[in-house]
Amino acid sequence: MNDFTGISANARSRSSRHALLDLAPLELDCMNTLWPAGEATVREIRDRLAPRLPRAYTTIMTIMDRLARKGVVTRRKSGRAYIYRPNLTAEQARTQAVGQVLENFFGGSKEALLAQLGACSPAHSAHSEPASGATATSSGIALSAPELPSETP
Predict the structure, then answer these.
(1) Which CATH class is domain 9-88?
(2) DSSP conformational letter for 152
(3) Dihedral (C-alpha) 87, 88, 89, 90: value to the nearest 10 degrees?
(4) Whole-model pTM?
(5) Under a CB-based contact definition with an 8 Å cutoff, are residues 86 and 73 in contact?
């Protein structure tokens, strides 16, 4: 079969729309490798990632299978391999991710988001410490639960 398979277009857009902030760092790395290629096999994605992020073929195969199940990519069989294609462009993904951040962290207030961005000076770039309650990841900053004060007996 040479057609791209996966979930229906409606389910795909619904799933990818809600899953963008749920992508694990390696899933996002695979997507950032797939977007400029347009479509690629697991081996091609692994080879493009290898110089900066060497991973086993089976690891990338598992990640791409997860992305297909989430509806973020579609795949078609070509010989013994699958060829993967993104279901949304990098621009669409950025737009959706910013929209999710806007809603989830700023209550939909663009002004609050812009104020936060304005508070970030160049000194607060990737070389600075993450904010309290956050940890650095390979793709940015992941929020964690705030630390609670310890009780002393």
Answers:
(1) mainly alpha
(2) -
(3) -110
(4) 0.65
(5) yes
DSSP 123-134: GGSTTSPPPTTE
Distance CA 41, CA 78 (A): 9
Positions of E strands within the chain: 40-41, 73-78, 81-86, 134-137, 140-143
Name the nearest CA neighbour of 84 among 152, 35, 141: 35
Q: Where are the domains of the chain?
A: 9-88
> What is the gyration radius of the CA atoms in the chain, in angstroms?
18
The DSSP bridge partners found for residue 82 are 77
Place of tokens 């959706």: 96
Determine the Cα angle at 72 with ends 66 and 76, to 5°.
80
pLDDT for 13-31, tens place per residue? 444 444 566 789 999 999 9
Rounded to whole angstroms, the Cα distance separating 16 from 88 reads 8
Per-residue DSSP letter, 135: E
State pLDDT tens for residues 84-94. Answer: 999 999 999 99
- Strands (E) in 32-147, as ranges, are 40-41, 73-78, 81-86, 134-137, 140-143
**Beta-carbon contacts of residue 133 (< 8 Å; ≥ 6 apart):** 143, 144, 145, 146, 147
Q: Which two tokens stand for residue 103?
A: 């809603």
Residues in the chain: 153
